[in-house]
Amino acid sequence: MELEDFRNRVAGFVDEVIRPNLAGWEASGEYPLELHALAAEQHILSLGQDPKGDFSDDIPRRKILIEELTRSGSQAMVMALASHFVSLSAFEQTMPDTYKKLSAQVLSGEKTLVLALTEPQAGSDLRNLRCVAEADESGAYTLSGEKSFICNGNRADYILTAALLEDKLTLFLVETRGNNIESQPIPCLGWQGLPVSYLRFNQAGAVRVGEPGKAGRILQKILLQERLNLAVMANTSAAVSFEAALDYSKERQIQGKPLFEQQTIRHRLADMHGKIELCRAYINQYIARVAQSGPDVKEVAIAKNQAVAVLEEVASQAVQIHGASGCVAGSLVERIYRDARLLGLGGGSTEIMNEMISRAL
Ligand SMILES: Cc1cc2nc3c(=O)[nH]c(=O)nc-3n(C[C@H](O)[C@H](O)[C@H](O)COP(=O)(O)OP(=O)(O)OC[C@H]3O[C@@H](n4cnc5c(N)ncnc54)[C@H](O)[C@@H]3O)c2cc1C
Asked: Which of 74, 113, 233, 327 is most buried when burial is the number of CB atoms within 10 A of its CB?
């Protein structure tokens, strides 16, 4: 499928399937899992390619998918339908046969796969993880320990996770059904409609992914992908929020003329637009360069931090320009304002990104 056709396909899916149902999914706390199969039918989960084919990641197509899903106004939908690539690429690096099996199941919407790293005492500092893996005489592994803030953790079919195997940080694949895992919901500020969970593994069966002690190296690679995805999501969310504020300022009549005619509002919109465009240019320039010279830790961190900072400012200003109507639950700018707050934490927090940038200076 050509890139523009793929963009139109995702935009159509957002218009017909996602946008009309968002409020209901937010109210119930979860979107239906059938959404994965519906998206897969249109080859959306596989970036417009044949899911049974030899799937390999493609940054420009992933960017299109994230942009169009973000245009729904809900970042939860991006986390739901575009975050599988990050976990799949861990298997691509380490276990070609498992990768083939999992990607066929996940890209066809038959199964879901999530990444569970965070623990109650360890988010940014993964060296402090306590989840433990043990091998029995046959070489099979079991995991014991906790994970927290896991998107779709209560209902995913597969979990890619990290645990200590003889004190070495190692990745594992956990099949969830009937596998000694307890879960509890954690209602969160944003990304509503996407259930977030606390999990406890009680000697849950697991398969080792990659060599013992190599989790750090694999995660380094896949988290670069995650941060770029989040930068694209933040930049697009800012653009959507800005467009809503611009439209509103032209419609809203104050003192007999559109709000946009007030210089202070017009200049604020100009400033928001400029910041969004600068971030977009930086992200696009980075994506063009990755194809030539590979990923760059510092540049991805800059892209994420700047896109998130601009989003936080724009989302807040968009609510301000809308006045009280920007505070109505479920309105576009209200939802983006809520979601915006999460991005400075997920995928490596703002402070951790600044640490990476400063080390490269
Ligand atoms: C809605 C939501 C969904 C999530 N989904 C997932 C998921 O699916 N899978 C998953 O594994 N995790 C998930 N997370 C967890 C997320 O990745 C963590 O919140 C993040 O890694 C930060 O960890 P923490 O919350 O433990 O904060 P902490 O690491 O305790 O940090 C607290 C504060 O200290 C700052 N800080 C930390 N270290 C330093 C330092 N060295 N220098 C200066 N400041 C520092 C942080 O930036 C932060 O501001 C999710 C979180 C949320 C809110």
From this structure: 74
